[in-house]
Design a protein that fits this description.
Blueprint: E1 5-6, E2 9-10, H1 15-18, H2 21-33, H3 39-56, H4 60-63, H5 70-79, E3 85-87, H6 92-101, E4 110-112, H7 123-133, E5 141-144, H8 147-155, E6 160-164, E7 179-181
Parallel strand pairs: 3-4, 5-6, 6-7
Antiparallel strand pairs: 1-2
Helix pairs in contact: 2-3, 7-8
Length: 191
């Protein structure tokens, strides 16, 4: 439960879903330390285990296809000249691999993951992405599905936040969004 696993489901608001690699390593190391290991040894054990798992599994992108409707939305935004970026709790390398694997590079101008010390909900993440896009956060609309996304948008003074619930009933943390939608195909552009 500490990692956000509920039976055979991953809680969309849990650590595995929204936490960074570093946050997941720290949580796992706490459990290892509980067995009597010193903290540094626990961290070393966990980092080695995570690295071994990375080597064993296929590319992460294979397991994380784009959400339904996202490619059509990205094509529409691109056709209107709207700049798009991905900010993820995953690593930048995995975000870039995801974009490449699914052929989204023509639609996404910024691909940022969480690097040590810089992760959502830190508003500096959004500000950095906006700098790369040459836009200000005050004219940026953030679309996200976690409270970390919402807090980042609010604290960076983004123009607005669109929460995507993906059919999940547990949208309470996203209730303060400017708009709450269920799927990407509910986003419409107006001239």
């Amino acid at each position: 439960m500490a990692f956000g696993v509920d039976g055979d489901q991953i809680n969309a608001d849990g650590l595995l879903a929204v936490g960074t690699r570093q946050e997941n390593e720290i949580a796992a190391a706490a459990y290892v330390a509980e067995t009597g290991r010193g903290w540094l040894e626990a961290l070393e054990i966990v980092r080695f285990a995570f690295s071994e798992a990375d080597g064993y599994l296929r590319r992460k992108a294979v397991y994380t296809p784009p959400f339904e409707g996202s490619q059509a939305l990205l094509a529409l935004l691109s056709s209107r000249g709207i700049k798009v970026g991905i900010l993820s709790a995953d690593s930048t390398a995995n975000v870039e691999d995801f974009v490449q694997y699914y052929g989204l590079a023509d639609y996404i101008q910024v691909q940022m993951g969480a690097e040590r010390g810089m992760a959502k909900p830190n508003p500096a993440c959004l500000r950095q992405a906006c700098d790369y896009l040459n836009v200000s956060p005050e004219v940026t609309l953030v679309v996200g599905d976690s409270q970390a996304d919402l807090l980042m948008a609010r604290n960076a003074n983004a123009a607005g936040f669109v929460a995507v619930a993906w059919g999940r009933p547990q949208t309470v943390p996203l209730a303060n969004a400017d708009v709450l939608i269920d799927r990407f195909d509910e986003i419409q552009l107006v001239s």
